[in-house]
Write a structure and sequence with these properties.
With 352 residues, this protein is an alpha/beta fold. It has a domain of 245 residues: Rossmann fold. Helices cover 40% and strands 17% of the residues. The chain has twelve helices and 13 strands. The strands form three sheets. Strands 10-6-5-4-1-2-3-13 form an eight-stranded mixed beta sheet, with helices on both faces. The protein has a three-stranded mixed beta sheet with strand order 7-9-11. A two-stranded parallel sheet has the order 8-12. Helix 2 packs parallel to helix 4 and helix 4 packs parallel to helix 5. The two termini are 14 Å apart. The chain binds nicotinamide-adenine-dinucleotide (NAD) and thymidine-5'-diphospho-beta-D-xylose.
Length: 352
């Protein structure tokens, strides 16, 4: 049995990843370490504790990745770290960047240290750091030939991206200085079930169901490269199992869309008029375009996206939010904060 420590496993990508691993790797057991910040939601994982296929292989620990006392015993039981915990929303980082530095930078450093000192100094077998294409900065709209490769210089523009870039550099340093078996992934924008409705797709879909307009930033021409979250999960697991230590792997969908095209596609799927678009002031420092060259992971590890084809995959996701109103209504109303208290009151640590 291989034990994976997944940080941030109650968030959007983390919860999809926990399910993906439990379903596809019967020889893996999981410790899910999550602080349950505003974006951590145990309703994303409802049912796992009781599922007889998973119960003996899944454990939830509520805790902070910056808590070194908590980390030490957990890392001694860990073979592979999949590090996803982060403050993840660009707009929040513009309002207050302090939590981003605390979790993304100091938290990553604490986790690296604990992973290195674990197993009586032998350390963990693998440490996968889940990062983002935003560390590369922004591409111009008039140069469609340009994409981010793993050799593109790091030029982050938002406090979020800067904090992720700092964490990437700490991971890089751990490899060069301490020969830690680290691997870094940099992925483009994800879509799929359980995404916190502050991010553009779930925000727009849920606003429209509620009869509200959708706030499109600036001229709507900014471009993002969209990948289904399960394609991302599969890529992370592929890197964990087959990647070369010390390397960075870009992950992307080869699926560039302007925000205006994305918004119109959502409106069309939902049968809403384009007059539901509300142009609003642009995001400060708004990156113009992201586009990933994912040829390295395909060439070296044989991974390619298979679930991200547009517009079917978008439609499936939109329909998931339409069919799961209870989930996002709990999030928007704040009721999801009660779920943990009811399920686990008095027990900080849950599971095997
Ligand atoms: P999310 O905000 O949905 O989830 C983050 C999770 O981390 C939450 O469950 C939260 O409670 C937890 N967390 C936050 N601070 C913590 C701390 N100090 N200790 C322990 N847990 C903590 O984010 P997401 O969209 O699922 O992103 C996950 C990772 O993937 C992040 O590292 C992000 O940078 C990266 N990423 C996201 C995308 C995307 O499109 N969403 C794309 C590329 C990379
Ligand atoms: O209300 C909105 N209106 C709007 O026009 C919101 C929330 C966003 N937007 C635009 C801004 C971006 O160009 O939509 C695009 C996508 O915005 P977000 O969903 O906030 O994602 P983004 O800023 O691109 O970052 C996401 O992808 C990379 C994740 O949040 C990051 O965690 C990940 O690293």
């Amino acid at each position: 049995m291989t034990t994976m420590l997944i940080t941030g496993g109650a968030g959007f990508i983390g919860s999809n990843f926990v399910r993906y691993v439990l379903e596809n790797r019967p020889d893996a057991s999981i410790i899910n370490l999550d602080a349950l910040t505003y974006s951590g939601n145990l309703e994303n994982l409802a049912g796992l504790d009781e599922d007889p296929r998973f119960a003996s292989r899944y454990e939830f620990v509520k805790g902070d990745i910056a808590d070194r006392d908590l980390l030490a015993p957990l890392l001694d039981r860990t073979d592979i770290v999949i590090h996803m915990a982060a403050e993840s929303h660009v707009d929040r980082s513009i309002l207050d960047s302090a939590p981003f530095v605390r979790t993304n930078v100091l938290g990553t450093q604490a986790l690296l240290d604990a992973a290195r000192h674990s197993h009586a100094g032998k350390g963990v077998a693998r440490f996968v750091h889940v990062s983002t294409d935003e560390v590369y900065g922004s591409l111009p709209l008039d140069r469609p030939d340009l994409k981010f490769t793993e050799d593109t210089p790091i030029q982050p523009n938002s406090p979020y991206a800067a904090s992720k870039a700092a964490s990437d550099l700490l991971v890089r340093a751990a490899f060069h200085t301490f020969h830690m078996p680290v691997l870094t992934t940099r992925c483009s924008n994800n879509f799929g079930p359980y995404q916190f409705p502050e991010k553009v797709i779930p925000l727009f879909v849920t606003n429209l169901i509620e009869g509200r307009k959708v706030p499109l930033y600036g001229d709507g021409k900014n471009v993002r490269d969209w990948l289904h979250v399960l394609d991302h999960c599969e890529a992370i697991l592929t890197v964990a199992e087959k990647g070369r230590v010390g390397e960075v792997y870009n992950i992307g969908g080869d699926n560039e869309r302007s925000n205006l095209d994305l918004t119109r596609a959502i409106l069309d799927i939902m049968g809403k008029g384009h007059d539901m678009i509300q142009p609003v002031e642009d995001r400060k420092g708004h990156d113009r375009r992201y586009a990933i060259d994912a040829s390295k992971i395909e060439r070296e590890l044989g991974w390619r996206p298979t679930r991200s084809a547009w517009p079917d995959a978008l439609e499936q996701t939109v329909r998931w939010y339409m069919a799961n109103a209870e989930w996002w209504r709990h999030v928007k109303s704040g009721a999801y904060r009660e779920f943990y208290k009811q399920q686990y009151s008095g027990r900080e640590r849950v599971g095997a």
